[in-house]
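User: Predict Ribonuclease Y's structure from this.
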Amino acid sequence: MNKIDFWVVLLSDILSIAAGIYIGRKLLGRLFSQREKDAETRAAEIIKNAELTAENIKKDRILEAREKYLKLKAEFEEDTNRKKNILITNENKLKQREQQLQQQADQSKRREMELEQQKAKLDQLQESIGKRREEAERMRQQQVEALEKIANLTAEQAREQLVDALKAEADSRASSYIKSIVEEAKLTATKEAKKVVIETIQRTATEHAIENCVSVFNIESDDIKGKVIGREGRNIRALEAATGVEIIVDDTPEAIIISGFDPVRREIARLSLHRLVQDGRIHPARIEEIVAKTRKNIEDEIVEIGERTVIDLGIHGLHPELIKMIGRMRFRSSYGQNLLQHSREVAKLCATMAAELGLNAKLAKRAGLLHDIGKVWPEEAELPHAVLGMELAKKYKEHPEVCNAIGAHHDEIEMTSLISPIVQVCDAVSGSRPGARREMMESYIKRLKELEELAMNFSGVTKCYAIQAGRELRVMVDAENVSDEKANTLSFDISQKIEKEMQYPGQIKITVIREMRSVAYAK
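Assistant:
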């Protein structure tokens, strides 16, 4: 009985499962069928929307193409009309030009006719003038014959007397006329030059640097002098031999004098002394070591000074050897004026003056900086420093105008560019300004004596005085032998002779003084 129940239950379960499967398949079939219908409906809608979108896009493209066509058509018509108007305008201009040429041709014909008429009149006038000239010559000859009879003199004799009588007056008037012409020429010809030079000088502010032949090394106490001298003077002899200067240890308190004409050697000696005193070990071997190191440092400093100088002035592309020579200028002097300071000053003056004149300011500044480069060439040379500097500039591929300016700034060679006289003028301005240089007393006194002797050689001069450090020459003349007109001529002649025979900085004013004294005695 249990087995039957078991199979009944099993069979019922199998039937239930089979029924569930059947019902599930039916439900799934319906579900799939519904989804398929939904998918077809959605696909149909998507296709319909795509067709609508495509239609709209097609219409938009058609509208855009139509608008572009209309725009291009309008531009074409506008361009066509513009060219048509240009053609019409050109055609009108050509017609006007033809009319003008026709009018000019008509005017030329009229002028030719007028010229022919004037030529005929001129021929008649010349013929009339010739007749009148012959008649005037005949009348003049008759008058001359009448005057010869009255004066009992021939025309040649009368002419000679007239020339002799008017000669003195002509000389006086000619002198006054020449003076007025010269003064007027100076005022007109040098007006702009003075303006440029004055503005250049006013825009330049420099120090008055004076170099000498000694350097002073300050020490804290006089006990150090003994160490510097060393046993039996061996330290000081070693220092002098290593540096090439003279060390003077005298009674000057707390100071040692370094004497020498080469500023580089003096600077090496001063720095070496400073290091030796600080170190405290002063003996010949140490001295040679310190001097060698100092000399190397000075060479590096020279290069640094040269590089700093060209950077400050804005000059580029200089050869390293030229830069080194520029640095050496710091330790050279000319008539007491520091050479580097002088060259920097000339460079700035040249740039300013060239800018005022509308020339190349950079090239002028370059030439001004290098104009005295021949003075610092370390080797002995028989050439003048200007020519030597020019050769060095050529060697290191400088511009031809710069080379010519260097060589011509003392008139050693002919000037071939406008920069050359600018460099010469600026060199004179830098060297002749008050306080810039220091002349030797003997040469200064000799120049004043030569100036006075030159003026005394002129006829009528009684006394002569050079005043204002040779900037002015006062000339006293004899009032009985020299007239006022001759005094004007005398001042001009003296100035011309000074310019030809003497060399001097700046300019010299010549003042001729004619004093007339009338003396009478009452008895």
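Residues 8 and 75 are 99 Å apart (CA to CA).
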